[in-house]
Design brief:
Distance between the termini of chain A: 11 Å
Oligomer: homodimer
CATH architecture of the largest domain in chain A: 3-Layer(aba) Sandwich
Helix content of chain A: 40-55%
Shape of chain A: globular
Largest interface: A-B, 46 and 46 residues
Order of helices and strands of chain A: EHHHEHEHEEHEHEHEEHHHEHEEEH
Strand content of chain A: 5-15%
Largest sheet of chain A: 8 strands, mixed
Strand order of the largest sheet of chain A: 2-9-8-7-6-3-4-5
Number of helices of chain A: 13
Radius of gyration of chain A: 21 Å
Chain lengths: 369, 369
């Protein structure tokens, strides 16, 4: 079989990771602060990195906690705020690991439809008027995973109004914010209402995933509660990794890395859109303005489960739309373009189109191409 | 006030950490395996390090899982095995964070007295005969935290017999095993009964704490269950940190680091014992054969709470014995000697002796010295 081409993993290819920059940052960090990197640290994270993040957000350091990746931040936040049976609003579709994490805690998960400009706030309003009393609304505002859509400013403001009115916390889960390669950014919700919003982000997409550094921005009293959970779980997060990230950020390597990543993503997204238009004209999608993902809706009658199998046979992988919802999504799929080269995208979409022809009842095509 | 001397923290001083070795390991690891260090990894940890650990223990790799520090390993194990109300046997005294972690999970914690050669297995037998049905017995077999005592081979064997007879798991928590500077080692319990024992250890004491790398050795089916918990918590542990540790281990730096640490600990323990004998003749203790800690019993009437305050006034810190028990321990304390130089030990024990004289009703001494 041909070499597998994966549109499945939301991870960058090695060629857009600044490995030399990481080596240099590691060397400098061990030289400058050997004590800070090698000792047990604080449950809030490596203090100079915490300070740097606080500066970027224009908030006092006591509102920031650095964790071993932002998934760990999510887990602490859910442990702190979400009890068994508590209602949590999420987008439909949403990140499958968030769904799993909330359901494993026994949360009452309510999915609210995601539109091309973000959460359907009218639908949320109806859910709230019908009596739902969420503790939390989990929102991925920029280049959403899995859909790639971005929440408009008007909807950000309306969501915050609803949160104040119905007394719930907005969890702004924002790992892709720095990866905008087209269009204009909207302000973060945490900057619009710092008391009502808990913000999470990560260096997985701007430095690399293996470094496992993420963080929360939240009111100081909530950070203090989460610090206790963090100390109980692991004493302190990884000081070596956070020291390397700190040096990477402060030396200017981060800014350069973000430019590299954005340029590559822009090219890959453009290629993917062109190939889909050419090879798979039944696909409906919105051209991404940033991030890793493109969401494809196929004609309603399409069996994406069968497409998945037919594609795998041809050596191409994606994630089924149904994996990101409690129900539905059977005619949709997520294509991640961060981990594939342009040549792989060309080849991969060709294989996908062949698989589609096969399952849509077209003339079978030679799988070997 | 004089500079604080801390016998409180169970952490090494910077002078016995091989910072240059860590820098070199980081550089080599990024060069040799840039893809493995920077990508998301597996929930079981960085595969080459997992393999190295498995080789050291002479077990297949599927029995090993590498975590962000061994506290995190403990937490996963407790999540997997200990439900609310389940009985867990621990040593008396034991590590305060383990006590806290078990109690926060609602475990029924039964403390069994620790003797100079380890757990009082006769007392454990009485507890079992009286009807206790523990899920788990948590044991720190070598240079125990906080007492510094080591479990004899005869008691290791008896404990395993009791575990088989009463069907409980022995959790062998062994971060200090490589730090023996006197006497002969006993075999690990996991090597004596691999099906009945879950083993945890860490690189915090042999590489450095800030690197946050620990691991579990357990039956493969339990490792598979814990892998799911780990993936749900953080996708994968820190690949950069584990890649650095892997290089540090395989290059021979680890073996050299262990020699450095052991030589320093031997000197510090010897100095501490000499100073205590000279300055604080009321102190009863066992000279350590390894590890970080020395446990001091003072005459029964001593109020160690008052000693703690009087010592703090003089700029010296320790941990009260009562912090390591559910009740009792009021005339005992833990002295950690890994983070203090010999000069600091001399000075610190002098201050402690003055504080003791004061609270024991002796002639008050000038706190300024």
């Amino acid at each position: 079989m041909a070499k597998m081409i994966s549109f499945a993993r939301g991870a960058p290819s090695l060629d857009i990771i600044d490995v030399d920059g990481l080596r240099a940052a590691a060397d400098a960090a061990f030289q400058k602060d050997p004590g800070g990197l090698t000792a047990y640290g604080s449950g809030v994270g490596y203090v100079p990195l915490r300070d740097w993040i606080a500066e970027q957000h224009g908030v006092p350091a006591e509102r920031v906690l650095v964790t071993n990746g932002s998934m760990q931040a999510d887990a602490f936040l859910f442990d702190a705020l979400v009890g068994r049976g508590d209602t949590v609003v999420v987008e439909r579709p949403t990140y499958d690991r968030t769904l799993l994490s909330l359901r494993s805690r026994g949360a009452d998960v309510r999915m609210v439809e995601l539109e091309h400009d973000g959460l359907d706030v009218l639908a949320l309003e109806r859910v709230l008027k019908a009596g739902a009393q969420p503790k939390l609304a989990h929102i991925i505002p920029n280049f959403q995973n899995p859909a790639g859509y971005t929440l408009s400013l008007a909807k950000r403001e309306r969501l915050l109004e609803l949160a104040r009115e119905h007394d719930f916390t907005v969890f702004e889960d924002d790992p892709y914010v720095d990866l905008r390669f087209a269009g204009e950014p909207a302000p973060t919700m945490v900057s619009l209402d710092p008391e009502r919003v808990v913000y999470a982000s990560s260096f997985s997409k701007t430095v690399c995933p293996g470094i496992r550094v993420g963080y929360l921005v939240a009111p100081a009293e909530l950070i203090a509660r989460i610090q206790k959970l963090a100390v109980g779980a692991y004493i302190s997060p990884n000081m070596v990794a956070e020291g390397i990230v700190n040096e990477f950020c402060r030396s200017g390597a981060l800014a350069r890395s973000i430019e590299t990543v954005k340029a590559a993503l822009a090219e890959r997204a453009r290629t993917l859109c062109e190939c889909l238009e050419r090879e798979l004209p039944d696909a409906r999608f919105v051209a991404p303005q940033g991030g890793y993902f493109l969401w494809v809706d196929l004609p309603r009658s399409t069996d994406v489960g069968a497409l998945f199998e037919a594609a795998a046979t041809r050596g191409v992988q994606f994630v089924k739309g149904s994996d990101f919802m409690l129900d539905g999504g059977e005619a949709s799929l997520r294509l991640a373009y961060a981990g594939v080269t342009e040549a792989e995208i060309e080849e991969g979409v060709g294989r996908l189109a062949e698989a589609y022809q096969e399952i849509a009842g077209g003339v079978p095509v030679n799988a070997a191409r």
